[in-house]
Amino acid sequence: MNIDRKLDACGLTCPLPLLKAKQALNGLDSGLVLEVVCTDPGSVRDFEVFAKQSGNELLRQEESDGQYTHWLKKA
Question: Which of 61, 53, 75 is CA-nearest to residue 1?
């Protein structure tokens, strides 16, 4: 998967990882991929809901050692 922009939101709690991701997506062209890494376990549900509501595509989510990584494709 090609990553066009990476966002480190580690240490931030809800709703900041999602807000930072929204800002980053606003700066991307349609079809580009944003990778977001954070430590908030609530981000898993937040990103799922955000993708459904916003029309952006949630490509994948992973958890490893307390870090949650989300890949979003801008609509």
Answer: 61
CB neighbour burial string for 11-42, b if at least 16 within 10 angstroms, e if fewer: ebeeeebbebbeebbeebeeeebbbbbbebee
Q: Which of 14, 28, 37, 59 is catalytic?
A: 14
pTM: predicted TM-score of the whole model, two decimal places:
0.96
CA-CA distance, 4 to 41, in Å (whole number)? 24
Active site residue 14: yes
CATH among 3.90.1150.30, 3.30.110.40, 3.40.50.1970, 3.30.420.40 for 5-73: 3.30.110.40
In the numeric block, which tokens belong to residue 67?
Answer: 């870090």
**pLDDT tens, position by position, 24-36:** 999 999 999 999 9
As a whole number, the mean pLDDT across the chain is: 97
